Amino acid sequence: MAADPKMRFLVVDDFSTMRRIVRNLLKELGFTNVDEAEDGAIALQKLQGGGFEFVVTDWNMPNMDGLTLLQTIRATPTLKHLPVLMITAEAKKENIIAAAQAGASGYIVKPFTAGTLSEKLNKIFEKMGQA
Amino acid sequence: MSDFAGMEDLLQDFLQEAYDLLSDVDNKLVDLERMPDDRGLLNDIFRGFHTVKGGAGFLNASELVTLCHLTENLFDRLRNGELELTPELMDVIMAATKGVRDMFGELGQMVMPQPADPTVIAALQGALSGQMPGAAPPPASASAPPAEPVPAKAAASAPPGSGGEPDWQALHATLTGQPAGAAVTQGELITKAEAAPAPAPAPAGAVAPVAGDPPGTPSPFGRRATDRPGGQPTSARRAEERGGRESTIRVDTSRLDQVLNLSGEIGLTKNRLTSLRADILAGKNDSETLHALDQAVSQLDLLVSDLQNSVMKTRMQPIGRLFQKYPRIARDLARQLGKDVELVLAGEETEVDKTMIEDLADPLIHLIRNAVDHGVEMPLERQAAGKPAKSLVRLEARQEGDHIVLIIADDGKGISAERIRAKAVEKGLISEEEANTLDERQSLNLILLPGFSTKSEISDVSGRGVGMDVVQTNIQKLNGSIEIRSEPGKGSVIMISLPLTLAILPVLLVLLGDQPFALPLSLVREILPIERERVQEVGGKETLVVRGEVLPVISLARLLGWPLARYPEYGVFMQTAERSFILAVDSFAGRDDAVIKSLEDFRPKGVAGVTTLSNGQIVLILDMKELLADLGQHPDMAASLRALAAA
């Protein structure tokens, strides 16, 4: 499935520099329709407002962490279809397993380049195309 | 060439945010000493290092990544109860935090951080492997390096394709670039970017992109793998060249929106005026047109002052950003001195001009050190005096009218006016007679004199006799003042009063012939006529007695090196920190709120800047201190005035 450049992303991270990095990387890949949220709780609010097609979230955040956000998304009928890419500095196997079990569409470890991000996104798009 | 070519913006953002995070971590560390088992605190601190590490990775700052990584792991163990927080461990953590701050400093100079102090790294690694003296040995399972392959049961716990979720083995394939079903091993799961809890510092390649990245992929931020720290001899020089000032500022978007909104309104009003001008030029000057003109101009007036206010507000920052550094400083110092001190902050939300915040940093540190070092007593001494062993130092900010007041108060032994006077006499700063005429308040102010220090032995912490006078000078540079109060046995209070902003300076406009000059109004006490017969000559100098006080009369013309065209009619009674005097001028043009424009790289002596009057005339704002410092000739001043007159 060719990605729609107008696809609306939500980038979730408590560190604004990181949100900017991800936003820049997405822009480099041609995705400019990006909104941001500071933690899982705010992200959930925004997502419930509708209109988002892709979630890129950090794991470790105050209030609601990325894993809880992911679990909540998967447990919400209106949101469960959303692809969720987890971004984190943790590359421990328990974390990857936990993310996979919670239904993450992909997992990417910081730091990464636009190339890596593109690769992960494409794999997710492919999967979505098959589904 | 910078180590961060092409990513300066990112670096700035990172540093600004990371400094805030680190200050927060510092404060939480201070709290942690009191509540070593608080999981919330441990979690927050863990997350602080974790976040910094994540950002540092994108900046390629591998040494910072390594240091944060080790510290983060330590907090992971602490929060999981696998390690116990001992005072020794706390010292290691404090040292690591300082290391991180030092690296921020290097990044601020656009230099790739050098490796952290090897003893700190070794101590962190030692603590992680349970070799910290006094640290509880971690359970064997936790200390074992996680080098074994993933146990099969991990895979089994997530059966492929369960419940319609993407099967995780396929996911792993996506993640690791390995074909699905391949034996999942440690090496594949844990990407090269993160040698996770491995005790060795991450190698230089540790921040390379995750596995599967095609080699040579151009980096999104132009980072260059060839830019490795190494010991560039230029780093130190570069560090000196750049001032420590932040060149960026964080502004609430709603404030920027307001500025935008107002400039839009001003644009509309300008359009209205343009059309009115066209009407008037075409000969239309009926009362309706003139009324409309009057209205438009009044509206513009209002809008412009609103805009000025809004722009000023964008420069205002909560002083808490400055305050948050201090609890850690106070704690470190108290520990060093064997005292038990808690620094209490209040009014952190008070907003102060950004430049002022930067200029206040050093004086405040000094005052806090003074309070901890000289102000409060040792715990035993306090108990003997019937006070709680723990002393309180309070740092407070609040706005009072158009002033900001900063208060540093301690509950220590107070300052004895008697001792201060004796010391000042002993040091030859004042004479015995002078000492006898000083009241309590004046005596306390003696500690602001250059060369004053009451502590007999010099401590390396605060007292070297070059302290309070520097604080005083710095505060005066900000047009502020200091007041000291003390009650022996109960404690001392130092109050600093500052104007809200430095951008607008209330001035008094005086005339010399037809030439106006602006004097800072804060120095003006009163204006009085100079009656020639009352001027007395004392020792060849003209003086005037005002309410029993003998004041020198200094002619502004003479200060500027101008010929005295006629005898000045008015005197401005001025008071600077050093002296009181009467400045003789010809006449006055009123008072004004001057918007100071600096003269860029052209700065004649005695001129603080220029401002423009409503009629478009340019006026020099005089720096009285500089003018008085040298009562001789001011050729460059005279030249600049000639240049001005010719313009």
UniProtKB/TrEMBL annotation, chain A:
Residues 8-125 form the Response regulatory domain. InterPro entries: CheY-like_superfamily, Sig_transdc_resp-reg_receiver, ST_Response_Regulator. Gene3D superfamilies: 3.40.50.2300. SUPFAM superfamilies: CheY-like. The modification 4-aspartylphosphate is found at residue 58. The keyword Phosphoprotein applies. It comes from Dechloromonas denitrificans. Keywords: Phosphoprotein. It holds the Pfam family Response_reg. One of its GO terms (biological process) is phosphorelay signal transduction system. This is Two-component system response regulator.
